[in-house]
Amino acid sequence: MSAPPADGDAATRAEIRERVIAAGTSFYWAMRLLPAERRDAMFAVYAYCRVIDDIADSDDPGAAKLAALAAWRSEVAALFAGRPTQPLARVLAAAARDYRLRQEDFLALIDGMEMDARAPICAPSLQELDLYCDRVASAVGRLSVRIFGDDSPAADRVAFALGRALQLTNILRDLSEDAARGRLYLPRELLDRYGIAAGTPERVLAHPALGAVCDALADIAEAHFRDAAAAMGQCSRRAMRPAAVMGAVYHASLVRLRRRGWTRLDEPVSLSRPAKIWLALRHGVL
């Protein structure tokens, strides 16, 4: 393990911890199952994801977004070379050293955000969507399972499947929000299958066959949830507790999305705090 953190790094860890708690994210309930040092490492990875995602989602011109992402690409190289300059990167450097995190997984998230930053993604191919999900979600999963305590091939299979399941659930949850940014992550092959011509995101979301497309994408997410559960069965049960909780929370959200249907996209779907606590207890403790 690393040496005790310097005062500055301890302050950064505390600030990150407070931000995650304040955000009220489902992520927090899963990460509470971890010992303090591993939990702080996961919070730092979460903070890194938020920073990179906020760059891609900003109103800045595309060139400015790409420049900011390039700066973080250089910072990732610096942290793996032992010369981080940003407070967050110093905390990430300790996590990378302690849990054998891989540089390519940090960079994959930047690759994914660059896909968003270059131009709004609109009706990608299934292959492009799968690559996007791998970069922005499964790569984070590959970092996460190592911090959880399992770096086996089965753990990477959990990251592969669960990352895709979670990201597809997010896509189905955020259809209206993404459309407002000019984005549409519903794959072209499914739109073609159900007779929806390519057009603006708003036109696609207003099409009467939208529900069939969303249900088909939800079926793909369900298959990934099942694959993730099967892979978890080949891993350390203790290490996979946070992943099991995340899977349970997101799957419950997917079920609620399907129950709500696809004609009231502005009607939010979320789990209550007691529901999240119950799922954390059921899948993380019991």
Describe this structure in words.
The protein has 286 residues and is mainly alpha-helical. The protein folds into 2 domains: 1-103 and 113-118, no CATH class; 120-286, Farnesyl Diphosphate Synthase (Orthogonal Bundle), CATH 1.10.600.10. Helix content is 73%, strand content 0%. It contains 14 helices and no strands. The chain has helices at residues 7-23, 26-31, 36-57, 62-80, 87-99, 103-118, 126-148, 153-173, 175-180, 188-193, 201-205, 210-232, 241-260, 273-284. Helix 3 (36-57) runs antiparallel to helix 7 and helix 12 packs antiparallel against helix 13. The longest helix is centred in the middle third of the chain and has 23 residues, at 126-148. The two termini are 29 Å apart.
Short summary:
With 286 residues, the chain is mainly alpha-helical. It has helices spanning 7-23, 26-31, 36-57, 62-80, 87-99, 103-118, 126-148, 153-173, 175-180, 188-193, 201-205, 210-232, 241-260, 273-284.
Based on Cα principal axes, name the global outline.
globular
Radius of gyration: 19 Å
Counting DSSP H or I runs of 4 or more residues, the number of helices is 14
CATH superfamily of the largest domain: Farnesyl Diphosphate Synthase
Question: How much β-strand is present in the residues?
Answer: under 5%
- The chain-level mean pLDDT equals 90
Largest sheet geometry: none
CATH topology of the largest domain: Farnesyl Diphosphate Synthase
CATH first level of the largest domain: which class? Answer: Mainly Alpha
